[in-house]
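Quick question, first post here. What does this chain look like in 3D?
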Amino acid sequence: MNILNNVSSAFWSTDIWLPPNITWEDIKPTPENKYANYQHLIYPLPMALILLVIRFAFERYCFGPFGKSLGIKNTRPKKATSNDILEKAYICRKVKTTTQILALAKQLDWSERQVERWLRLRRAQDKPSTLTKFCENSWRCLYYTYSFIYGVIILWNKPWLWDIKYCYYNYPYHPVTDDMWWYYMISMAFYWSLSFSQFFDVKRKDFWPMFIHHIATIILMCFSWVGNLTRIGSLVLLVHDCADIFLEAAKMTKYANYQKLCDCIFGIFTILWIITRTGFYPFWIIYSTSIEAPKIVPMFPAYYIFNSLLILLLFLHMMWTYLILKIAYNAFYAGQMEGDIRSSSSEDISDASVDSTSLNNTTNYVAKQNSRQKVH
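> Answer (accepted):
Ran it through. Tokens below.
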């Protein structure tokens, strides 16, 4: 028990979490001063489950019927015949070379072509229908639209939106208003729900980068909440939500076969992404946290961790920006954005090609290149 107490005391040390000469008692939440309460960080977990239920209801009773009205089909591919040997090899992902296919064909007394055809059918079974992907994107588009509008509304009269130095003036004595409390709690709940649902949503090639993005975002928000850095945290949320609306909308129009509208929205998304993620984010927010903040606030270890997480997100943005610009170039070269946006990846044994994917949310998608230039 003493060990746990010692670990807890070391973890919550004011030397780590707070500026010099500031104690937890100084920023203890009271009815008069509603500072951020670290105990409230448990609320986003049950709220995430509520969001998953709400999402299920919207997808089933709203987005699904709407997608069908647009002509999006919910057809499922033909199932492969039951075969324990091939199923085991497929699940273990042991079929990657021609030699392995020949070995399976010999074991089953099948032709090589029969084995290849079974594997193609089996992979197709794991691919979600277009309607399923449309519903997922519709939910994220709805959330990002709400989050951005709500963020603009509550931050419009906040001084730090117009002068970012107010994020540091009088720090850490920054009470959290009710509107900011809900903004943070719902945002954290959403990213928790994405972290949970990612394991049963449509599988993407950028699964792990997106998972890292979600976890880094949650940790970042937790750090900013515990350290009373909610002002700068709210600006980070606002900057990130803006472009994501158009990313999800572009995918939706792609699945609905509105190609020209998709190209138009994707163009808007690309411009907004560059402006917000490679413009405002590094040159406004990170410049402020790295250059301006140390001139106003005495630095402390937790702040360095917080700023490092911001920089980690910037590196992810740079990676995704490269992929987005690559998509834009290929779309311009081909005359339109071709292929399925944010499709699940799979290996095709017969032609050794791989379905390309798009970036998420977050942040990010890779569309298929034109038919003359497959992604390997």
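The longest helix spans residues 259-296.
Residues 251 and 341 are 6 Å apart (CA to CA).
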